[in-house]
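Holo model, manganese (II) ion. Inputs:
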Amino acid sequence: MSEPQSLDESQARVLSLFREKESFLLSGHVRPDGDCIGGEAALASVLLAMGKRVTILNPDPPDPNFAFFTDALDFGVYQEGELPQHDVAVLLDISELSRCGALGDKIGAADSIKVVIDHHMHFGEEWWDASFVDVTASATGLLVYRIARALGVELDRTAADAVYVSLVCDTGWFKYSNTDAETLTIAGDLVGRGVEPSKVYDALFQRDSPSQPLWLSGMLSTAVYHAEGKLVMFELPFADPIVTKQADSDPAMDVLRAVEGVEVVLFLRELEGDQCKLSARSKTDYDVNALARKFGGGGHQKASGATIEGSLSSVRERMLAAALEGFSASVGPSS
Ligand SMILES: [Mn+2]
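Output:
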């Protein structure tokens, strides 16, 4: 077991709210990932164990691959209309209501106490009443684990699976540089509570459709190297004949990251209506958060994203110029 972390004032306030209030609304960002869904499921299980009323409501449903732990809970999808009654609204794995679609507007306007649990950097005004934020934490699910320990609540099997999914999704199955001792210690504790790593792996990563290898080869065929092989860009045009817009870019990302000498991988997915979505990954000190912020996005130093106005060809050109600048500027890699 990891040592209990000391809490700041806002984190202590979050714990008090969880102890004292009765009803909670848990929400996350559009297209919620494994960490967001895992964090929500874990926190819901903890609050339910404390006898609280909990509603989970997201802009989009959880991925069916997560059913092995999400099926034990009710994951609502917000369409429109009034929110269920709640004393406290909790936003997980995101600190910007603007990334929660129409649900974000509704939560912002609701007469409830607002809490954020997150490990991303926040820029701009702090609009919440209390937050449990640690930008050094590998996953939001890890913060929920800390919260459960501080509250003295034992994780049930659903919560254990959920936190494990948070950890593996945000650390690339314990490969990325955010994999620290606390992450692995918690993972060990979760396995002790019944989590079966190979079954989680099968549920998450052994369920590709027969088209997946075709999508992968289609995306990889667009890869172009720059900056003497330190930068590689690949893309997915909106009207690609083989690759559908559901295609997952992560496997292609992994293949390109594995190339020796590659420091930065940039992926541009063309969206409908002259927009592109950037996914940026860094293997060094190169700051892809700074790069994404130049285009109105953000995230972490080693993983970030942005949605950018413009056609694929125009965005590609601007992105390449800005990315190459990063290699010559102070944000560039250290030796
Ligand atoms: Mn996360």
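The pocket of manganese (II) ion is lined by residues 35, 93, 119, 139-140, 170 (CB under 6 Å). Confidence is low (pLDDT under 50) at residues 331-335.
Archived with the compound record.
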